[in-house]
Design goal:
two-stranded antiparallel sheet, 4-stranded antiparallel beta sheet
Length: 151
């Protein structure tokens, strides 16, 4: 393998990510698809030439008396919520990976009452990415030139 060769294609990353997500949402963190306990955040992390990683956390919610109550996760999930969450995640991940030459960054998925309510994307990049994907088609002079001179 060459130094800057891309090992994991978007299709491979998609398959790997979905396998991880299904395992996570059905066995390790099924509470995310539970109406009673489904409050939390799931993060999908991509780095160059590495398999995807997934982490999740659940919320500590204060009750009406002002005390903090820790909602301990349940090992149960709602089947319909799980199915819909997996479908949404598949769509999100497929679309995200299709837009990236070199997927690097983090997708943060928020759950509330067992359903996905938001997803944010945090892309990362380094100067080494230019070696991998090539220099930009435009350069700084294309942006700094005076438009009046061209008319």
């Amino acid at each position: 393998m060459k130094k800057n060769e891309i090992v994991y294609t978007a299709e491979t990353l998609n398959d790997m990510t979905m396998e991880l997500l299904i395992k996570r949402l059905t066995e390790e963190s099924p509470h995310l698809s539970s109406p009673e306990h489904g409050h939390g955040i799931l993060e999908i992390i991509y780095t160059f030439n590495s398999p995807p990683r997934i982490s999740d956390k659940y919320s500590i919610i204060s009750n009406s008396g002002g005390d903090f109550e820790v909602l301990f996760p349940t090992k149960n999930y709602d089947e319909l919520f799980l199915k819909n969450n997996i479908r949404y995640l598949y769509y999100i991940i497929t679309r995200y990976l299709a837009t990236r030459i070199v997927p690097q960054g983090k997708l943060t998925v928020e759950f509330q009452n067992g359903k996905i309510i938001n997803c944010t994307v945090n892309n990362e990049g380094t100067y080494k990415d230019l070696e991998r994907s090539g220099k930009p088609k435009l350069n700084i002079d294309d942006f700094l030139s005076d438009d009046e001179e061209e008319e």
